[in-house]
Design brief:
Elements lengths: L18 H22 L4 H19 L7 H8 L2 H8 L14 E5 L2 E6 L14 H15 L7 E10 L9 E11 L2 E10 L2 E12 L2 H9 L4
Antiparallel strand pairs: 1-2, 2-4, 3-6, 4-5, 5-6
Helix pairs in contact: 3-4
């Protein structure tokens, strides 16, 4: 893989580095679209069963291909850690079908983000499920830790829900580093819809040793 600009340094969506990643991203986007259509349509049961059978066959075909389990293995293969995160993360990963995906970037020692959540993320009628609001904040502030000397893992995340967060609306995020103290990074963030504050958060992240994380990853079942 050729040397790439860190994708979180720019607001624009970065192009995939090769044909394989482009195809994975295209398929992920189609699966997201299919998930939303499934939530908002009522096709004939036989049509849904036929689609399920087709997908089961596709899954079997994919499972027979070379497999890579976890981002640590991708890091070893790709040698581009930020880009692998950009593609595979469950919140911002453009090649991960469960991601909305969140687009986030850094500028002038501040963090910015944008995301749009469709019907598959509905909690209260017409509104984003609060758990997804929290998850987006967690990932967003985690990315914003690139503004600190030693990024870490989430210790605590406190979310204040100010107003219902609407579905199918461009949500704008803003965050910054409030304090760095040893291995602890304290960051704050906010989410707005149509200029109105819907939620805000404070996240405490604690640094970890890379060797310990690699050991934990090796112990995970596949």
């Amino acid at each position: 893989m050729s040397k790439l600009t860190n994708p979180f340094d720019v607001e624009e969506l970065m192009a995939p580095p090769n044909e394989a990643w482009a195809a994975k991203r295209e398929l992920a986007e189609q699966l997201r679209s299919m998930a939303e259509v499934l939530m908002t349509s009522a096709p004939d049961p036989e049509a849904m069963r036929a689609a399920s059978a087709y997908l089961r066959q596709q899954q079997a075909d994919f499972e027979s291909s070379p497999r890579t389990f976890g981002r640590m293995e991708f890091f070893q293969q790709e040698r581009e850690s930020p880009y692998v995160h950009y593609e595979m993360n469950p919140l911002c990963g453009h090649s991960n079908p469960v991601a909305p995906p969140l687009n986030s970037w850094l500028r002038d020692e501040q963090a910015f983000g944008r995301v749009r959540l469709g019907w598959q993320y509905e909690g209260p009628p017409g509104c984003v499920h609060g758990g997804f609001v929290a998850a987006i904040f967690d990932d967003f502030l985690g990315m914003a830790q690139r503004l600190t000397p030693h990024p870490g893992m989430t210790g605590t995340l406190t979310v204040r829900y100010r107003k219902p967060t609407p579905l199918n609306t461009d949500l704008e995020l803003y965050g910054y580093v409030k304090k760095v103290e040893g291995r602890k990074n304290l960051l704050v963030g906010e989410m707005r819809a149509n200029g109105e504050l819907t939620a805000e958060c404070e996240g405490l992240f604690i640094g970890f040793k890379q060797d310990a994380m690699r050991q934990y990853q090796r112990q995970q079942p596949r």
